[in-house]
Amino acid sequence: MFTLALKNLLSEKGRLVLGVAGVAFANTLIMFHVAMLLGTFSQITKHIEKTDADIWVLQEGLSDVTSSTSFVSGSNIEAIRKIDGVERVTGLFLYYTSVKIRQKVENVFLVGYDSESGVGGPWRLAKGKSNVEGDEIIMDESLAKSEALDVGDEINISGHKLKIAGLSKETSAVATQYIFISKESVLDYLNLNNIYNYLLVSCRKRADIGGVLEEINRIKGVDAYTRQKLAENTLRFWGKFLVPLLTTLVIVSFLVGTTVIGIVVHNITLHKQKEYGILLALGASSASVCAIVLWQGAFVGSSGFIGGALISAVAIHIANDTIPGMTACLDHKVLAISILLTWLMIMFSTIAPLARILKTDPFEIFRG
Amino acid sequence: MKTLETRAVTKIFKSGSTEVRALTDISLSFEAGELTVVMGPSGSGKTTLLSILGCVLSPTSGDITILGQKVNGLSEKERRRLRLGKIGFIFQDFNLLDALTVRENVAMANQLRGDSRAAGLKNSEKLLTDVGLCHRLDFLPKDLSQGEKQRVAIARAFMNDPNIIIADEPTANLDSRTGQDIIAKIGELGENKTTIIATHDERITQLADRVVRIEDGRAVEMS
Ligand SMILES: Nc1ncnc2c1ncn2[C@@H]1O[C@H](COP(=O)(O)OP(=O)(O)OP(=O)(O)O)[C@@H](O)[C@H]1O
Ligand SMILES: [Mg+2]
């Protein structure tokens, strides 16, 4: 039956090419968008996950790093340091701001971190120094690229001259890039006195984390979360925006794909309707005829899927290379979603022509 | 041995409010090894009769018995199974599958019954040699002459070794010489089978064991 399905398709090359191209297009739409969104999504909490701290301390009432700006007094550092099991406490600035780089205004996450310990600083380097000193900064690689900046160049942020000491990787979240700077510099620029956005706490042993967390939460004016919990909360916040977006994109792509496969399979199938009628007249079972039509759908679907995956891989590669901060990733999750949707498309698109074929009256074939 | 029997078969087609009485009170029986030719003017009901005999169409009233089994109450699924295993069909316009080669077309009959493609292809070779097409195995139908196409259809009809062969005007699209060859071939391969051929061609009656004439939907035995 597979041979007949294949040969039927090959005898209609124009329609076949159209069908495979359509499915490839639908798959590219799905894969590219899902890869882009998931890639972006995974970047949002990368900083939290990569920071070498077990516990994040936030302003009381906040539970994620996105929905509101947190302010925590540095006076808490001493109190927390005294808690049993605490190894280290550092302050961190992490805030969304506009900076004027050369003539252009860019929205960035400015990270003022403890350069002595490196906690909260860049975790993966593309180039240059991995830690800042004095008026040095480490900047996201893609941001530097888009501004034609490199290690050694100087830029001006809020009237302060800063020198690029290194370029970091994986530091682009939702089209916003990171700039790392020492926390002392931030305190200085913003004229702040002993105020941070977050406090980062490392414990001596994993087993201490629970107890330390409890103790910190007893302190007035702060709320503490483990690194994992904070990442989870932050993702949940973003999920409110991203999940509907993702769902809409997937549904639209799915409908486009289903329509295209549907039209093509419908066309090919009905064009051969008489032949299926002949098979039914000879005594073919419904199952045999279903198998042929499904094989046709499967062939168009799989070829389109492979085509779509190849196009997506190339498109994603180009996009990651050329669009600053693009972090799309064609991983197993994206492929699994596409395979599932392609199969659903095939199912949906073959039902109508199948129903029509199975209704063929063999007597019509007999009468010619 | 009696393979096929009709008793008081009547077929009335309804199209809208008008009724067409295609067959009236047909009672016939067919033996194994017998070649019956069904003759009659256009519109007399030959195709209708053959369709009912071939389990493709249900009569409005009357009984059909095939190989001892009453087929009136059978579901479409059971009828298909009966057709596939017990009845071989040859059509006026061949009804080959365009995308398949000669050999694949014939093998399809085996495959529909669940045999593997390889087994089907192997079995088809012998039959295609019998009908004189061993040199055309990998041709597509479009590259064959009309007579060759009909011979492919004959090979296909005999593939599952059916008890009954039903051929509706198998020579209508062929010249008379080729037509005679085709009928001779069907007769030769169907030596032990019940063969029923509908035709307009008087000359074919010479090859028949028996001639049934249909006039206005009624059967008149000529012998
Ligand atoms: N589906 C149908 N609906 C209505 N009338 C039909 C139908 N099928 C056949 N008929 C009528 O039944 C009668 C017998 O038709 P049938 O095709 O059996 O004749 P035939 O002897 O095979 O003719 P021919 O030699 O032209 O093939 C005709 O009058 C035809 O118009
Ligand atoms: Mg007819």
Describe the structure.
The complex is a heterodimer of chains A (368) and B (223). With 368 residues, chain A is an alpha+beta fold. Chain A has 12 helices and 13 strands. Chain B has 223 residues and is of the alpha/beta class. Chain B has 6 helices and 10 strands, in the order E-E-E-H-E-E-H-E-H-H-H-E-H-E-E-E. Chain B has a 6-stranded mixed β-sheet. In chain B, helix 5 (146-158) packs parallel to helix 6 (176-189). The longest helix of chain B is centred in the middle third of the chain and has 14 residues, at 117-130. Chain B starts with a strand and ends with a strand. The mean pLDDT of chain B is 94. Chain A binds chain B through residues 1, 3-4, 7-8, 10-11, 275, 278-286, 288, 362-363, 365-368, and chain B through 47, 50-51, 54, 56-57, 77, 80-85, 87, 89, 91-93, 95, 97-100, 104, 108-109, 111-112, 117, 156, 168. Bound molecules: adenosine-5'-triphosphate (ATP) and magnesium ion (MG). Adenosine-5'-triphosphate (ATP) binds at residues 13, 15, 20, 22, 40, 42-48 of chain B.
Sequence-ordered SSE layout with sheet pairings:
The complex is a heterodimer of chains A (about 375) and B (about 220).
Chain A: H1 2-10, H2 13-44, H3 46-50, E1 55-59, E2 72-73, H4 75-81, E3 86-101, E4 104-113, E5 125-128, E6 136-140, H5 141-146, E7 154-157, E8 160-168, E9 172-173, E10 176-182, H6 183-189, E11 195-196, E12 198-203, H7 209-218, E13 222-226, H8 227-271, H9 273-282, H10 286-322, H11 332-358, H12 362-367
Parallel strand pairs in A: 4-10, 6-8
Antiparallel strand pairs in A: 1-12, 1-13, 2-11, 3-4, 3-12, 5-8, 6-10, 7-8, 9-10
Helix pairs in contact in A: 1-10, 2-8, 2-10, 2-11, 8-11, 10-11
Chain B: E1 2-15, E2 18-31, E3 35-39, H1 46-53, E4 61-66, E5 69-70, H2 76-86, E6 87-90, H3 102-112, H4 117-130, H5 146-158, E7 164-168, H6 176-189, E8 194-198, E9 210-215, E10 218-221
Helix pairs in contact in B: 3-4, 3-5, 4-5, 5-6
Bound molecules: adenosine-5'-triphosphate and magnesium ion.
